[in-house]
Amino acid sequence: MNTPLSNGAPELPRASFQNLTSDAAATRPDGDASLDVILDVSVTLSMEVGRARIPIRNLLQLNPGSVVELERAAGEPLDVYVNGTLIAHGEVVVINDRFGVRLTDVVSPTERIRKLR
User: Fold this and answer.
1) Average pLDDT per run of 10 along the chain, which is 117 residues long?
2) pTM (predicted TM-score)
3) Name one GO molecular function term (predicted).
């Protein structure tokens, strides 16, 4: 039975936790972490054709048939982002009546890390 503390609240038992150990499935024999634990994590992949900055006044005047000029020239590669981080450049292709992207340049891991700073 719990005994009351000096302030009248009952004393509760202390929580106990198991010691954390490395999971054999997540660590390779050489001690490096395995990517297997994250291979099924979903990420958001997005392609950016271009951007435009326009005043709200002009935004409110847009309707079907309006044309918005982008800051990117025709024929320039589009940007490929994963969770908001630029990872590659590519070009639009059509495969079986669907759009796709052919990667033309992949940003190196070193360059991605440098851009984060």
Assistant:
1) 66 80 57 77 93 95 95 91 92 92 92 76
2) 0.60
3) cytoskeletal motor activity
